[in-house]
Amino acid sequence: GAVVSQHPSWVICKSGTSVKIECRSLDFQATTMFWYRQFPKQSLMLMATSNEGSKATYEQGVEKDKFLINHASLTLSTLTVTSAHPEDSSFYICSASEVLGASQPQHFGDGTRLSIL
Amino acid sequence: QKEVEQNSGPLSVPEGAIASLNCTYSDRGSQSFFWYRQYSGKSPELIMSIYSNGDKEDGRFTAQLNKASQYVSLLIRDSQPSDSATYPCALNGSNYKLTFGKGTLLTVNP
């Protein structure tokens, strides 16, 4: 149980393109999903917290107009990287919890490797 | 000071040995701690969670938490080559957000 599906797994596109990444909880409902970014040999860094039916909460330094998050249902959150540039190339990972709580582990999607040429 | 610190390694152990991974943290209010395993190019996979001081065992894995000293460790017994990966620890802070360490790269040599 507790499977999180992320799509696509790889994206290679030209600078200036907008890219949408989907995160789905397959066998549970997730009121809250999280979006992370990981650069090579660095730790996962939380970008934003996605709440179903409301606006996402962005971490300091993350541009909300560049990284658009939509959490339209209890099983789907999307991250759109608008007008992507080479510095946006990274590994983007979503996670979700069945119940939001201090002792509840987050279940991670397989990640999306984004390469901007 | 970084919130979660780990030795990035690499930590090399022979097959069958015990691998010991350590993590220190700065937020005394942290209540929940997690060890993940991350293979190169993959997303993290939960290995262990621990919430109370002391040891917690699950198969070949033992997590140890000492809140007074602000460290959490992971022991892997009978290490296998398939255990070779990066092991980031994470703590659950305010608003249930996870803060990750960089992870320790473990190499188990056959």
The largest sheet of chain B, given as strand count, sense and whether it forms a barrel, is:
5 strands, antiparallel
Question: How many beta-strand segments of chain B?
Answer: 12
Mean pLDDT of chain B: 93
User: Strand pairing plus helix content of chain B: what structural class?
Assistant: mainly beta
Distance between the termini of chain B: 37 Å
Oligomer: heterodimer
Task: Point out poorly predicted stretches of chain B.
Answer: none
Query: Could you tell me the mean pLDDT of chain A?
Result: 91
Strand content of chain A: over 45%
Biggest β-sheet strands, sense, barrel of chain A:
7 strands, mixed
Percent helix range of chain B: under 10%
Q: What portion of the residues of chain B fall into strands of 2 or more residues?
A: over 45%
What this model shows, in words?
The complex is a heterodimer of chains A (117) and B (110). With 117 residues, chain A is mainly beta. In chain A, strands 2, 4, 5, 6, 9, 10 and 11 form a seven-stranded mixed β-sheet that branches. Chain A has no helices and eleven strands. The radius of gyration of chain A is 13 Å and the shape is globular. The termini of chain A are far apart. Chain B is mainly β. Helices cover 0% and strands 53% of the residues of chain B. Chain B contains no helices and twelve strands. Chain B has strands at residues 4-5, 11-14, 19-25, 32-37, 45-50, 54-58, 61-66, 71-76, 85-87, 89-92, 98-100, 104-109. A five-stranded antiparallel β-sheet of chain B has the order 1-3-8-7-6, with no helix packed on it. A four-stranded antiparallel β-sheet of chain B has the order 5-4-10-11, with no helix packed on it.
